[in-house]
Specification:
The protein is mainly alpha-helical. Helices cover 57% and strands 11% of the residues. The protein is flat, with a radius of gyration of 13 Å.
């Protein structure tokens, strides 16, 4: 039995996302969280945060997307 997850390792994206979040005063924090956690939807979080984050609701949606649990699959 093998367990497969949608988590991805992107060390360069993680560093870039953290720096952008710091320089933007936390505005891009959801994207940084998604990149560090290795979410498969990190780029979706980036675009939602960039385009709709200023509405506060968009920022919260991006944050919720970034902290969702990883999907697991069990392969026999």
């Amino acid at each position: 039995m093998t367990i497969i997850t949608d988590q991805k390792s992107r060390p360069v994206s993680s560093v870039v996302a953290i720096l952008v979040a710091i320089f933007s005063g936390g505005y891009m924090l959801p994207w940084a969280i998604a990149a560090v956690r290795g979410n498969a939807n990190a780029w979706s979080v980036f675009w939602i945060n960039l385009l709709l984050g200023w509405t506060v609701v968009g920022w919260i949606v991006a944050l919720v997307m970034s902290i969702r649990e990883h999907r697991l699959r069990v392969v026999s």
